[in-house]
Every structure is written in C-alpha cells, then in structure tokens.
Amino acid sequence: MSGVREVPGGPTPTAAAAPAHKQQHQQQQQQQQQQQEHEEQQVQQQQEHEEQQQQQQQQQQQQQQEHEEQQVQQQQEHEEQQQQQGQQQQQQKEQQQEEQQEPQQGQYKYAALNPKP
User: Which domain holds residue 48?
Assistant: First the structure.
C-alpha cells in the first residue's frame, strides 16, 4: 500500500513557484545593499563638502584684505561643485529605479512561461 499517487499537475506548481520567491528575496537584499552604499556615499560627499567649505573659509579670511575678486571666483567654483554632486545623486537614483523595474519584468515572464493550472 503505497497509497500516495502523484497527481499530474499536483506538486509541480508549488515547486515551480519556490525559485521565484527565492529570487525576490535575493533581489530585495541586493536593493538594500545598494541603498546602504548609496547612503554611505552621500555621507562621504557631505563630509568632503564640509571640509572644502572650512578650507575655503580659512582662505577667504586670509585673502579678504588682499583680493575681493578671488573671493567671487571661489564662490562660483563652490557652486559648480554643489551642482555636480546633485547630478551624481540623481544618476544614482535613476539607476536604482531601473534595477527595481527589471525584477518585476522577470516575474511576469516567469508567470507567462509557467501558467498556473
């Protein structure tokens, strides 16, 4: 009396669904890692930015008696640096969005290839 008969189409759908769930979990972990890296980069950029500001303030104090024109130039350079940092952050955000869209498309394809009975 083996009793248990494999019904065609019975256990297979659950077996097929398992890898998709695992994939989802892995992708979530990857996204979290990317976010952490992204935040770390932002913090680093801010620190560098603050260091630059401090250096510029010291320079400006020394030069105030000498040249006011140089001060204006330094400010412009400083604004350009800020803009560049803004662009970098935007690019990173766009990359994150693309990576989040890809796994969803993969799941649709998977569902189409393995229709549920």
Answer: 30-81
Q: How many structural domains are present in the chain?
A: 1
Q: Is residue 59 part of a domain?
A: yes
- Angstrom distance (rounded) from CA 81 to CA 9: 61
Query: 9-30: string of b/e by CB count within 10 Å (b at 16+)?
Result: eeeeeeeeeeeeeeeeeebeee
Q: How far separated are the first and last CA of the chain, in Å rounded?
A: 29
Distance CA 55, CA 36 (A): 29
Residue 69's alpha-carbon distances to 6, 57, 62, 64, 80, in angstroms, are 86, 15, 13, 9, 17
pLDDT at 1 over 60: no
14 inside domain: no
pTM of the model: 0.17
